[in-house]
Every structure is written in structure tokens, then in C-alpha cells.
Amino acid sequence: MKRIYIVSVILLMSISILSCNDGFMTRAPLDEVSDENFWRTAQDMELYTNTFYQTYIRGHGYSWAAGRVQPYGVNEGLAYRDVLSDNAAPESYLGITNNEYDSYNSGSSVGWSWDDIRSLNYFLANYKRGNVDPADRNIYLGEVLFFKAWAYYKKVKIFGAVPWLSKPLNVDSPELMGERDPREAVMDSVLNILDQSIEYLPAKGEEKAGRIHKDVALALKSRIGLFEGTYRKYHTDLGLDETKFLQASVEASERLMTEGSYAIYSTGDTQSDYYDLFSTYSYSDNPEIIFWKDYSTESGLGHAFARYWAQNLRHRFGATRSLVETYLASDGKPISVSPVFEGKDSIQQEMTNRDPRLTQTIANFGEYNLTEGAMGANNAPVPNIPGLSGNTCPTGFRVAKWYMNDPAEWDRVYNGIQAAPVFRYAEVLLNYAEAKYELGQITQSDIDRTINAIRDRVDMPHLMMGNVPDDPALDSQYSQYVGYVPDPLLREIRRERRVELAFEGFRWDDLMRWKAGGFLEKPVEGIKFVQEQFPSVVTGSDVFLSEEGFIRPYAETLPNGREFDERQYLFPLPTEQLVLNPNLDQNPGYDSP
After folding, report:
1. 391 confidence band (pLDDT: 50, 70, 90)
2. Domain annotation covers residue 48
3. Band of residue 4 on the pLDDT scale cut at 50, 70, 90
4. Residue 482: inside a domain
5. Residue 179: inside a domain, yes or no?
6. What is the pTM of this model?
7. Any signal peptide, and if so, which residues (predicted)?
């Protein structure tokens, strides 16, 4: 496991070298790095590539991190992406979740910006100019290929087919007026350069402090392979075979599982280990973390994540009932069939006899231990639901995961130093299990090495292939909102992924690749409202309830619930680009100029 440790002075130098305006694929080469005095040493290459760490490995962001990630419209930071999924509900619903997203004029406002790709290609066009030892030079080549693969993976997730650019373009380059390259060709290229990256990057332990190594690229390959493979399988209209990418995910995962020294973090404390994994200042001795972002005072970096995640509650969000009901009962059975599940008459009741990750992810009333006097501590006994003062938790399910129970971290304001895991081993295990299932190769041994190894951290019963529990409630939801019902074993693999990776930014991508966006239409509900717990809150005025008495945060703003349309699996290309280049075609379901 390695941390990101980049001296702030070098970061500032690299940013000044490469800073550029958003949206201009045609920006000419920057004079500062185009003269003959650059590219002569390995230090030049290191200086150039430093900025890509800040661009692509955001962690909890920097300083206030008040910007929004486009086109998703959520705050920067890996924990916030779930706000646009069915895992969480912000006070004001996001248009992206309700089919209200249309073409925008500005390319940067929807992610159609190519400056970073151009900077990566500029390196590829120039890195051989100096008389640098190939062994040293190739390390930075491996880094750039890694970041280019990651950059294109993100663009394909947003737009599907995109132009594949292999060189920095000038204002008169004919490629500027080209068509989008087919998704198949682009993703084949992504896989190809990622394999080259794995070849060139140093082995774990041989890299410079804070820089990526082979295992990081293998983890990205595991992720990309699963995404593209399952996207192709469930989006049958693409007509693309999924096998190569699923196999790539399996192969990359297997290398990390057999060649690496990773393990699920556990001290034996089933009631706190999962929570503790996300509330720490350092991962230097954590066997689960493949790569992490360090914000220690020595790094010169800082963020306001701790202050805003729990105190100011950016997006003013709460977890959804949909997520809470996904967690199994303590006997390993879904709550719809478990005899030990006590019911839903209060949050205290429904959190009893559950997977321990539930109460380490969602704060139970009065039981989550917040330091007395810390900002936000008054939200621990009961959350600030509508009708109470303070920053609102609209569902009543307040998120405990990532909460840093240290007043000193709150007092650091925008110089917070809570560490951010970028790639962790649990995701690799989940990728492996799902890819093996989708290939028709899953065995009980595979389940034991992955799903059950993860469950052991919280002492949950093992998943057994010959005894997969029924879940008629979740199957019914698949049928109603998604249009298909997965095999019970696959359903449980997906459940494990949702529970283990909640609020780490995976859920939206999972829904998109499974062609399960219809889950966004499931009514958004919160806690069972108990008047005695909120004596001053008025129903029908402050809060609105479902027939079962659950809080409905969008009862007035979306009385008919959210709407999901097939077009939402991709985003629209910006209108200005379609006008400038008539050879670009708009994605289905969106207006063209």
C-alpha cells in the first residue's frame, strides 16, 4: 500500500506549467514546456507528470473542495457520488436522477473537455526527446498511459463513443472535425495502453514515494474490465461481446490476489473495524489499501471534507430506505424472510440484529459515539430532519461512514488531513466475484476468497452457493423497476457490493452498467417517523409520510416520484460542439441543434 505524497512546491510548479482553460481541444502546445531545454532529464518528466496526480486522484479534494464534478453535479470528493444514486437523497433532488438533464452549450459543463487528454498526449509526443535512460523514462510513460486509460474510461462512461486522440492537436488538425470513434475501438485502446502501463510501472515497493505502481494499474484494470464487460452484457443493443473485458477483470484481480500481499483489514473488532477503515489519518500499515491519498501536514495538502461531510452536510442529504433495507439480518438472510429481523416501527428496531456494517455506515439514534462538544454532535441523538433547526438530513438516516470523530480535525477547517483510500482490496475481490459469475466460472472457492472474506470482517454468515437465501422483496423490485430478475447468487454478489462500497462512489456506475437505472424510480423514503422522538415536528407540514409512516423527502417536489428514461444511460454532447463539428452525432434521446 502506498500513499500520495507530493511536495506542494512541486505541485505548484507543475500546475503553473500545465494550467489551461476548460474545453479547448485545439489549444496550442504550451510554450513553457515546448522549448529544447525540457524533456532532457527524468526530473523533467516527473515534474510534468506530477500534475496528473492532482487531476485524476482527487481523494477528498483540496482546500474547500466546493466545486462540482461534471456532468454529475455533485461535490468533489469520493464520498459524495452516491448522492446521485438510490443510496442517498439530497434535500433538493438532482435533475440527473429525474430525467431533467439536457444538452448544455459549454463542453466543460458536461465533461466534454479535452485539455487533460491533450496534456497526456503532449507527453507521449515528446518524452523521447531527451537522452534519458529508457528504464527511468518508461516509468513516467507507464504513469501517463495509466492516466490516459483512466481519463478515457471516464469519458466512455459519460458519452459512450468518443474521439480517440493519439496526438496533441493544433487549430488546423483535421481530427477536430472527425466523427466519434466506436466504443469498441476506444475501449480496446484503453485496455491496450493499460496493459502497457502495467508493463512499464515499477513493482510495488520499487516506486518513488507516493507514485503509482503496477498494483494500482492492475486495480484499475480490474475495475474497467468489470464495468465494460457487464455494460456490454446488459446493454445488448450495443451488439458487443463482453468476454474479453470480463476476463481482463478476472486476470488483473487474480494477480493482485495471488502476487500481492493484500488482505481485508481486521483487528477482530466486528463492531468498529469497518467504520475505523474510513476514519483515519494514515493507511501506511493497512493491508487493504492498494493506494491512498495522504493529507498529512508534511504533504502540504489539506481539505475541508471532515467539516462539511458531517457538520455542514453538503447536499443536505441522508441515506435512503432502499439502501438500509439492503443490509442482511444477522443470520445472513434478507430482512424480508429473516426470523430475527424485528421490524420497522423505529430506526432502533430495524437496526437490531443486522449486518454490523449497517450501524457503522448509518448512525443509529443515540448510539453513535460522537465526541461531546464537537461540531455536529447534537445530530447524534436524533438527526436534523425537516422541521428542526440546522442543516437538514431529509431522510433521517444520517451517514456515519467517513465521520472523523476528532474535534481537532474539525478545527483544521480546510486544512483537514483525513486520509482518502483511492483503491482498496475489497473492491478487487468484489470485482473478481462478479466477473467470475458473469463468465459462468464461479465456484464456492471463489466465493470464499472474496465475498466471505469480506463478510468475515464483521462476522456475518457465509454465502453458500448451494444455499442462497430467497429475497422475494428484492426480486420483486428488480422485476418492477429493472425489468429482469437476476439469478439469486448474482443478486447476493450485487448486494454485497452495494453494502461494502456504500458512499465510495460506485453505485451510479453499477446501476448504469447493470442497465438497472430504473431503481431510481423506486420511491425515496427515510426513517419510520415516530412522533415521540420528534415532538416539535409537524407531519403534513414539516415532514410528509408514506402510508407506512416513512418520511418522504420529495412528497411535494416530486409527488409522482422520480423518472428514469433509457437515454439517461449516457449524457448528451454539448450543443456548441455539435454546431462546430457537424460530423458529431448526438446521443439517443437528446435534442440536436
Report:
1. confident
2. yes
3. very low
4. no
5. yes
6. 0.92
7. 1-19
